[in-house]
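Researcher: Good morning. I'm working through a list of sequences from a screen, and I'd like to move beyond sequence-only analysis. For each chain I'm collecting a predicted structure so we can compare shapes side by side. This is the next one on the list. No need for commentary yet; just the structure.
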Amino acid sequence: MEDFLPIAHFKNEFVPFEQANVSIATHALHYGTAAFGGLRGIRNPQNSQEILLFRLDRHCQRLSQSAKFLHYDLPADKIYQTIVDFVKLNKPEKSFYIRPLVYSSGLGIAPRLHDIEKSFLLYGLIMGEYLSDDGVSCRISSWTRQEDRSFPLRGKISAGYITSALAKTEAKESGFDEAIMLNTQGKICEATGMNIFIVRNGTLITPSLDQDILEGITRDSVMTIARDLAIPLQERTVDKSELFIADEAFLCGTAAKITPIHKIENFHLPKTRPFTEKLKETLTAITQDQEPKYQDWVTKINVS
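Model: Good morning. Structure tokens for this chain:
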């Protein structure tokens, strides 16, 4: 049973989580006409009266952009303030995850985006590690990632996650922890809710944005950190065979943070992961507000 935070934001007001309910006829429930975000929060290790949110501005900007695909004008600053107020009301004591959602809340039956009500809701839950900190095993999914000409991949649209759900369950039921999807060109794309990086010959490599991947905020953070650490970096197409002979590989995302991959199909990757460990160590320090250079990535909320 999930440990949900007691207060949610629903229909423009803060209400007890149990009262934030939608109709069974809600348009988004039937047609996937919704978009969501996700961000983590923690208590400041140096100041227990503060809660730290990682890259809140970027998360709000991406959700606002995603809403545009639904023909919904939701300013990023409104999302930002709602999240700040939400945190102040809930005052979570443990590491937590925030889930904002924009959706077609009308009760119409036709699949459309025009002439139908849109809404914004927000809730949260206590969350520890999403994937094993020791690393995960992955399989190449039989399911193919959507492509941008048929699905708006620059938005975090809920309907698209049916592919992720199919791939994740396929992986779990065949003895793996996670799935890696190929795009329609047969190139490495991403995992079910995470971007992917590999290391080969001293270079950090990740699929480029034209490979039908999500524009991940953690992905962007990892690349920025790598450049600042003078780690050679390439954004390009990645072949499936490169995964099997990689020196290191890891997944990254808001929930997963940085999670090493120790096995892909029947290929075991090296146990020594210097790039992965250094990037993970630095990212963790940043989220805990222990890296002055990246202070603008952390929003501090006083909940005393």
